[in-house]
Structures are given as C-alpha cells and as structure tokens.
Amino acid sequence: MIRKRSTRSAELALADEVMRDPDYEGLPDRVRSALKKHVRGLWGEKETAFMLDREFGPENDRHVLIHNLRLPDGQGGFAQFDHILLSRFSRTAAIFESKNYAGNISKNAHGEWMVWYRGQHRPQNIPNPVAQVRRQRDVLAAWLKRKGHTKAFERIGVFVSVPATNDIDRSKVGNDEPIYKCDNLVAGWMPFGGTSPLSRLFSTGVSGLQMLAIADQLIADHVEEEDIYVRLGIHPGPDGTTAEPDTSQADDAEPEPIVDAPEEPAPEPVIATSQSATPPPAPVIADAVPPSPKPRKAGAQIEVCAGIMERTLPDGRIAFRAAKDDHIGREALTALCKGRAVWNPMFANWVCPPDIATEIRAALPNAVQLAQLP
Q1: What integer is the mean pLDDT of 127-141?
Q2: 48, 63, 68, 192: which has the fewest Cβ within 10 Å?
Q3: Domain final residue pick, 220, 241, 263
Q4: d(CA 238, CA 243)
Q5: How far is 12 from 38, CA to CA, in rounded Å?
Q6: What region does 265 belong to: left with phi over 0, alpha with psi -120 to 50, or beta?
Q7: What b/e sequence results for 262-294 when a residue is b if at least 16 CB atoms lie within 10 Å of its CB, and e otherwise?
Q8: Mean pLDDT across the stretch 63-75?
Q9: What is the pLDDT of residue 102?
Q10: Which residues are 10's β-sheet partners?
Q11: Do 307 and 209 sit in the same domain of this protein?
C-alpha cells in the first residue's frame, strides 16, 4: 500500500505554470538552469513512482511505499529518499533512487561513471549513483537502529532506476551494480525482497500493523525541503517571506540535455523476462515551452472553513487558500498541507488531488481550533 504518496505530478504541473509565465524568460540563466534541472529530476521520480505504485499499490498489504522522504543524516545535513519500500514477509527495506539520464550509461577504465549522451562524441562524467544510494542506506540503517527496528527489517537493499529508453553498458558497468531500467526495476528487486506464496505461508515476518507503525514513524520524522521557488527568489513562501536568489546548485547541474518524460506505460504486470517493453523515445524539451491548449475555467471559490477558501482547478485538482491577513488560517492550512499538497507560490495556495483534499477539508476545523490556542 502507499503510505506517503508522490507529489511529483503536481509539482510538474506547477513547474509548467512557472515556465509558461511571461516573466520566466526574463529570469537569469542560472535560475532557469536550476529550474530545468529540477524538472528533469521530477520527471524521473514520477516515472519510477508510477512503476512502484502499480506493483505495490493500495490493494497490496504485504508492502508499504513511502515517496519523497527527507531525513536528518546525523551530520547536520539531510538524506533525500526518492522511494522507500518496506516488505513485511521478507523483513526487508528497499531504497530506490531515480536518475533521469538521457543516454548510454557506462564506466571508464578507472571505474568512474559517465553517460554518452545522444549526438555527443565525448562522454560526460556523472556522480556515482550507486554510492549515493548506499549513503542513504547508511542513514536509514542508523534510523532503524535508533528506533529499535533492526529486527523488523533486517536487510536494506539499494536500487537505481533510470528511464527505459536508456542503455546500460553492462560490459563496463558490470552485472552486480544495482542499476535498472525503470520498466525492469521490480524484476531486479524480486531476488532481494520478493516472496512466493509458499514462503509467505511459513514466514515469520512482521505484522501488518507493525509495518504500518514503522512507516508512520518514518513519515513523522520527514523534514520538508525549502521550496525551490522561494530559494531561487522567484516567489514568496507560504508565510509571505521572500528569499534572496540562491542559484548555487545551478553550477552543479549535470551537463546533459533536458528530456521530457516518456508516456506512462499501460498498467500491465511487471514480469521478469529477457525482453522488456520499452516506451517510445523521450522528446527533448526546447528552451521555449510550447503553447498549451486553451484551458478550461476554474471553479468558483467556496469557503470551507472560516477565512479558508477552496476551488477546483481546470485539471481537477483542488486549491486551498487562506486570506493573507488571516495568520491563524494560514498556520492551520500550512500544518495540514505540508508533505501532502504542493505550495503554489504564484497564486499563494496549496494544490492537491481530490482524495487528499477530502482529508484536508475534514481536518481543517480542528486544525484552526488548535492554531487559536495560546
């Protein structure tokens, strides 16, 4: 089942709005470079989340999926987990790291990772993706030990997911490196965390309630990352403050083209076979974003709680907004929406899918009462 849903689709919709804004072309090159790098990462995480959700979704009570988790690393920083899978019968935890490369993944004679991008005659060096996810494993292992859950999940596996259109040069990368095309990711995970019906019958795995309790503890320790639009100084945050532009991460951008995500594959079972279905090649995003079709109108604003309004957006998502001078309403709404909805700095509202909106709407009265307490 999915305990913490991926918000990447909503974040991509927001990024599309920002990049279509007339003021976007006037932003400094370094800011636009940082946004493009951000979008590229979102596409990769969205594609992997789709594959994992399809396999371990709501009807699956043997596993728990947690997307987009950020935990303190014990050294003053944070570890960003794209996807974590807890499996109660095999007593395993798996970490999946998404990478949206666009070319042939290989290594040189020194074991250093690189990508041969399409149309380029020389490879580009990239950070070791497996070493990155192994560092995340150390953080998760320390968390499990600190919370007393090492017996519940005895082994932690690491997996790197890349687009299905990539080539992985196994003659250079090696067969032992846990890097897989996303459409073969579950098949690559099966030898580590999969179980058969017979083995589950005699399994001494943890109970479903214990697995959920541990997942909820992980989610409770999640630390929200600063909004990229606030960090880059493009828009104010939910508290109304505006940061000075920070483009330091733009200098570290990987020197690769920005690629759009491939179409989501049809929802059919992932089966480990010698040949994997490959979606059509991903087109390249040009600097100029193509015009969007004429949008439908958003619904009328409705007051759902004193001073807090909602409206249905043209794409079906729900937007919540508190009045600028309503500090209690803004505090209550922010507390409920963080980690579940996406802050849209352009319109100063929180955007989420309808099912999440139902939960937020129901919890708003109590949240407002708590915010009023001294």
Answers
A1: 94
A2: 192
A3: 220
A4: 12
A5: 9
A6: beta
A7: beebeeeebeeeeebeebeebeebeeeeeeeee
A8: 92
A9: 83
A10: none
A11: no
Taking residues 293-314, what's their average pLDDT? 74
172 and 307 in one domain?
no
156 phi and psi angles, rounded to 5 deg: -120, 120
CA distance 229 to 106: 34
The least confident of 85-99, 115-129, 224-238 is 224-238
At residue 273, φ and ψ (nearest 5 deg) are -130, 175
Q: Specify if 237 maps to a domain.
A: no
Does residue 311 fall inside a structural domain?
yes
Distance CA 79, CA 67 (A): 13
The structure tokens listed for 55 are 């396999």
Do residue 53 and residue 198 come from a single domain? Answer: yes
Q: Calculate the CA dihedral of residues 135, 136, 142, 147 and round it to 10 degrees.
A: 180
- Regarding whether 301 and 162 lie in a shared domain, the answer is no
**207 shares a domain with 352:** no
Q: Do 98 and 207 lie in a common domain? A: yes
Last residue of a domain, one of 187, 220, 253: 220
**Is residue 277 domain-resident?**
no
Domain that holds residue 66: 2-220
Cβ contacts of 338 within 8 Å, gap of 6 or more: 224
Contact at 8 Å (CB) between 188 and 161? no
Kindly report the backbone phi and psi dihedral angles of residue 213, in degrees, each rounded to the nearest multiple of 5, phi listed first: -65, -40
Q: Where are the alpha helices (DSSP H) in 174-285?
A: 185-193, 197-201, 208-220, 228-231
Output the six-digit token pair for 132: 């990155």
- Mean predicted lDDT score pLDDT of the chain: 80
pLDDT at 278: 47
Residue 135: CB atoms within 10 A of its CB come to 13
DSSP of 23-78: TGGGS-HHHHHHHHHHHHHHHHHHHHHHHHHHHH-TT--SEEEEEEEEEE-SSSSE
| 196 and 321 assigned to the same domain | no
Q: If DSSP codes are grouped into helix, strand and coil, which group holds residue 299?
A: coil
In a domain, residue 314? The reply is: yes
Q: In what order do the strands lie in the sheet with 78-87?
A: 2-4, 63-72, 78-87, 92-98, 155-162, 179-181
Split into its structural domains, the chain has a count of 2
